Amino acid sequence: MLKLENVSAAYGQSQVLWDVNLEIKDAEAVTLIGRNGVGKTTLLRTITGLHPVSSGGVRLNGEQVEKEPAFTRARAGLAYVPQGRGLFSHLTVHENLLMGLPALSGRETATREIPALIYDLFPILHDMAGRKAGNLSGGQQQQVAIGRALVTQPRYLLLDEPTEGIQPSIVQDIERALIRVRQELRVAVLLVEQYLDFAWAFADRYYVMQKGRVVETGLTAETPTSEVQRYLGV
């Protein structure tokens, strides 16, 4: 289980997160929604160790990790796909995928090859393995970014706005791949998403953030999107 316990975080004197409690069980899909600027990305960065916790705890597989560096959390099973994808545009698709392998250091499953499953989930990556990542479409880049995260063989996959600027057909491809990731690999997913139809079709539960706090949580199957749409409007 990934669990946040009263997590707060700040940028200098400006507090952004206030006593956030959140948990994700094994192979569960959870979506985190809210307007721009409410702290969703900061929360993901805090979970992964890219931003420090001011107070509170982050528990991963029963261990407290809020003081651990990002690379330690990655080796423990956290993978993060940031908004904007964070690819190396001058490297090829294959080279970008290889960048995920160091997170396997010390594991019995460590390998120097890209797992065949990555290309099975995203066949287009095999066809474009030699192309520079910067020359791909937004949807293709997103598949590379998710593939690179999965190379690390995570237990928890954190995705920040994965459908942003992507054509509907590729959104469907990504959804199908993520469903397989949960079912076949038993990977839990925390999804920050503005596209509610996608989020509700994929996630089991939701959390709503406002002004750095969690203000509502529930089951997607029991809550129509119309009831949470107000949290996204300007």
Automatic annotation (TrEMBL):
SMART domains: AAA. It holds the Pfam family ABC_tran. The keyword ATP-binding applies. One of its GO terms (biological process) is L-amino acid transport. Keywords: Amino-acid transport, ATP-binding, Nucleotide-binding, Transport. GO terms for molecular function: ATP binding; ATP hydrolysis activity; branched-chain amino acid transmembrane transporter activity. The keyword tRNA-binding does not apply. Residues 2-232 form the ABC transporter domain. NCBIfam families: urea_trans_UrtE. Belongs to the ABC transporter superfamily. This is Urea ABC transporter, ATPase protein UrtE. The lineage of its organism: Bacteria, Thermotogati, Deinococcota, Deinococci, Deinococcales.
